[in-house]
Specification:
Mean pLDDT: 86
Number of helices: 8
Radius of gyration: 27 Å
Number of domains: 1
Largest sheet: none
Distance between the termini: 38 Å
Helix content: over 70%
Order of helices and strands: HHHHHHHH
Number of strands: 0
Strand content: under 5%
Low-confidence stretches: none
Oligomer: single chain
Length: 258
């Protein structure tokens, strides 16, 4: 099942869960509230604390997802710049050593592009990543050998430093895409707090006046819709909210390589 389907099903499940939780809370209120004192200040403060915690958790989760979204876009630009810089510094090498390295650079850039273009096909994306890593293993020793043959210290320093930065940013992008996500327990807690809040709202509702579905539906739509956006922004290569547009810097770089 793809990420979009998972996000939609999770949000839809939360929407239905909120409605059911509200109804369960309302039934408990009808049964138990008449036996308790109305206007319980302590209970109201506790309810307010739960609602505030839900709001804070949504705010921090959304803010974190948005920050990581921007950071991933910045890394794409940084990697493209690093590859472009290293490619230009190949001019420092002897002429006979340049064609083979330039060909490897083009293959490497194609593999890095395929890594994101193949998504949401995870298997194909991982295959492209493995190909890019293998090309790293070819580019580095060939560049070191070419630098040694040139006998120029500035050439060695400039080119190998650029290659090292290029590989570091690539590894950072990969790690960020695969591992830089909140723990799943954060989303579990978010869902549970939304359901608990719905129970409390239903419990405090006046059973004699029937169900106030307008407010409940609005609350359910807002919470489930916000959770869907958080899940989509958190995985910008898999859902509907994507960062594919920033890949044009890679495409422009590839065209400049010929």
């Amino acid at each position: 099942m793809d990420h979009t389907s998972v996000a939609l099903l999770s949000s839809a499940g939360l929407f239905l869960g909120i409605l059911l939780a509200f109804e369960a809370g309302r039934l408990m209120g009808i049964r138990w509230l008449p036996k308790s004192k109305s206007g319980n200040t302590a209970a109201g403060l506790l309810d307010g604390a739960v609602y505030a915690l839900l709001g804070l958790l949504i705010a921090f989760t959304f803010s974190g997802a948005a920050s990581r979204f921007d950071y991933r876009r910045e890394l794409v630009v940084e990697e493209a710049n690093a590859i472009g810089t290293a490619y230009l510094r190949l001019d420092l090498l002897p002429v006979d050593a340049q064609p083979a390295l330039r060909a490897l650079f083009r293959q490497y850039l194609d593999a890095r592009l395929d890594m994101t273009r193949k998504l949401p096909d995870i298997k194909a994306s991982r295959a492209a990543l493995a190909r890019a890593n293998a090309l790293q293993g070819q580019i580095w020793p060939m560049a070191v050998k070419a630098c040694q043959a040139s006998g120029s210290v500035p050439t060695t320093t400039l080119l190998l430093a650029a290659l090292n930065q290029m590989f570091d940013i690539a590894n950072l992008r990969t790690t960020t895409s695969l591992e830089m996500h909140p723990p799943k327990v954060v989303f579990v807690m978010l869902f549970l707090l939304a359901l608990i809040s719905s129970v409390l709202v239903g419990y405090e509702a006046d059973g004699d006046r029937g169900r106030n579905w307008v407010h409940v539906l609005v609350f359910a739509v807002i919470i489930s819709g916000t959770v869907y956006v958080i899940l989509d922004v958190e995985y910008p290569r898999l859902g509907q909210i994507r960062i594919d547009s920033v890949d044009r810097v890679f495409l422009d770089l590839r065209k400049s390589m010929g």
